């Protein structure tokens, strides 16, 4: 077996995140985007010791439970990978993936302990399987090399090509109208897109955020400062659209960094406000352009209800909400806790959390800005419970050591990346904690991602 060799095989299982495992020549080959039961054609891309990886070339034969995708962009767009599976099959697949990773964290722990097996509560579905997202970042580019201007999502397995997604199914019609309007307008201007290799050009991203509950719409055009273009005609076009929601803010953010991430190097308000409002579980939240907020509002209510259930009786407890973002979890727990302290590294998000807490009449929330580990080192107060909701890559080992040192009786770990969760759980298990309950919540129908909530307790004498 050599690199670039082409093989055919049948996928025996699908592991997170949407990676098919194909047995071949006494080894297993991981092929991203392949689904259990498919017969596929693939090219070998990596040969490292026991690790073999391949690139999906084509599906020769569909899996028995596959259906036709309802999205015309599915074959080209890299945004979704499970849209050819019925929703109940997607749920079953994600549930099995999460359960396997949790079980592996236990079995891989050298403490060899789980005297009391944890309760796995399966997966909770998203209340909406389509049009559920409250945030989308679209990218300017060309659909193919030297092609016409495009605005959409990255082509599957491509860093450069941008697929126009005028009929994207994971957003509602307002996103699609704003996307089409913006692309049509900038095609007439002749303004160049930002070239990711040459680091030249103007147009970079279109960020749209909309409150699924409130209907508020926030639109942000992200460009370099290479041109001094007039934004007024674009804004005027936006207000000609027949939208279900209401545009409450239009912004222009400048970003001259070479990274493909959106970075705020200065934002001007073209219309209205630089935030939008969303409502969850009878609480109101003001959300700024780049602050973290769950991208599925209806699904977030399911997720946060589960977190509140897992916390139990907290009336006399001090809770640390680490990696708190705009303070959503902190404020949902505050009415049933003595005190909640949230820590968030993004100042914009922490500032929004303070505003939100005041707006919701919550006086027992404190939000601190900074790196979690460094802020914890400055605090004299000790928590009775810790809630962890870290970024996708999980918790830095040194920070996790600092968290474990508190020895709190209970922790709740919320994760959008179960592989990172499993890695951190293994460390927690090694240091005196056990899993009590776990539940997956599908916040991303059609896509590979899944949220997981784990309740952990400290073992007596550990």
Element layout with pairings:
Layout lengths: L5 E5 L2 E3 L3 E6 L2 E6 L6 E10 L2 E11 L25 H21 L11 E6 L10 E8 L6 E6 L7 E3 L8 H17 L13 E8 L5 E8 L8 H7 L7 E9 L12 E6 L3 E5 L2 E5 L9 H15 L2 E9 L5 H6 L3 E8 L2 H13 L5 E5 L2 H7 L6 E4 L8 H9 L4 E6 L2 H13 L2 E9 L9 E8 L4
Parallel strand pairs: 4-6, 7-22, 12-13, 17-18, 17-20, 18-19, 20-21
Antiparallel strand pairs: 1-5, 2-3, 3-4, 5-6, 8-9, 8-11, 9-10, 11-12, 13-14, 15-16, 21-23, 22-23
Helix pairs in contact: 1-9, 2-3, 7-8
- Low-confidence residue ranges: none
CATH topology of the largest domain: Rossmann fold
Whole-angstrom Rg: 23 Å
CATH architecture of the largest domain: 3-Layer(aba) Sandwich
* Morphology call: globular
Structural class: alpha/beta
Number of domains: 3
Largest sheet: 8 strands, mixed
Helix content: 10-25%
CATH class descriptor name of the largest domain: Alpha Beta
Number of E-state strands: 23
Report the end-to-end length measured between terminal Cα atoms: 48 Å
- Measured by DSSP, the beta-strand proportion falls in 25-35%
Q: Averaging pLDDT over every residue, what do you get?
A: 93
CATH-assigned homologous superfamily of the largest domain: Vaccinia Virus protein VP39
> Please, how many helices?
9
Record the strand order, biggest sheet. 7-22-23-21-20-17-18-19
């Amino acid at each position: 077996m050599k690199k670039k060799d082409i093989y055919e095989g049948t996928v025996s299982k699908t592991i997170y995140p949407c990676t098919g495992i194909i047995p071949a020549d006494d080894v297993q080959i991981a092929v991203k985007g392949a689904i259990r039961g498919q017969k596929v054609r693939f090219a070998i891309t990596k040969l490292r010791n026991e690790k073999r990886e391949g690139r999906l070339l084509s599906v020769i034969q569909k899996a028995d439970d596959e259906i036709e995708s309802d999205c015309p962009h599915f074959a080209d767009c890299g945004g979704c990978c499970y849209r050819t599976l019925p929703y109940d099959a997607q749920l079953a697949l994600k549930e099995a993936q999460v359960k396997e990773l949790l079980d592996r964290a236990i079995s891989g722990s050298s403490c060899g302990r789980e005297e009391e097996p944890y309760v796995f509560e399966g997966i909770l579905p998203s209340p909406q399987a389509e049009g559920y997202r409250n945030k989308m970042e679209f990218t300017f580019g060309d659909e193919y090399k030297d092609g016409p201007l495009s605005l959409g999502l990255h082509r599957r397995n491509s860093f450069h090509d941008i697929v126009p997604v005028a009929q994207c199914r994971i957003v509602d019609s307002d996103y699609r109208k704003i996307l089409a309007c913006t692309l049509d307008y900038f095609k007439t201007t002749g303004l160049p897109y930002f070239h990711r290799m040459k680091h030249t050009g103007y147009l970079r991203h279109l960020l749209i955020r909309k409150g699924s509950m409130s209907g508020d719409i926030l639109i942000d055009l992200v460009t370099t400062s290479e041109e001094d273009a007039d934004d007024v005609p674009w804004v005027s076009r936006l207000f000609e659209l027949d939208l279900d929601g209401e545009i409450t803010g239009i912004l222009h953010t400048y970003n001259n960094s070479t990274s493909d991430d959106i970075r705020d190097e200065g934002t001007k308000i073209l219309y209205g406000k630089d935030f939008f409002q969303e409502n969850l579980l009878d609480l109101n939240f003001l959300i700024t352009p780049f602050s973290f907020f769950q991208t599925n509002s209806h699904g977030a209510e399911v997720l946060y209800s589960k977190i509140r259930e897992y916390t139990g009786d907290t009336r006399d407890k001090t809770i640390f909400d680490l990696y708190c973002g705009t303070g959503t979890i902190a404020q949902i727990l505050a009415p049933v806790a003595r005190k909640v302290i949230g820590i968030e590294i993004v100042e914009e998000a922490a500032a929004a959390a303070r505003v939100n807490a005041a707006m919701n009449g919550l006086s027992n929330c404190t939000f601190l800005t900074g790196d979690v580990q460094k802020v914890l080192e400055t605090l004299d107060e000790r928590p009775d419970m810790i809630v962890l909701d870290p970024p996708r890559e999980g918790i830095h080992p040194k920070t996790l050591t600092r968290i474990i040192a508190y020895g709190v009786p209970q922790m709740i770990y919320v994760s959008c990346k179960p592989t990172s969760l499993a890695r951190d759980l293994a460390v927690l298990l090694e240091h005196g904690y056990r899993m009590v309950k776990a539940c997956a919540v599908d916040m991303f129908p059609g896509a590979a991602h899944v949220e997981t909530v784990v309740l952990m307790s400290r073992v007596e004498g550990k």
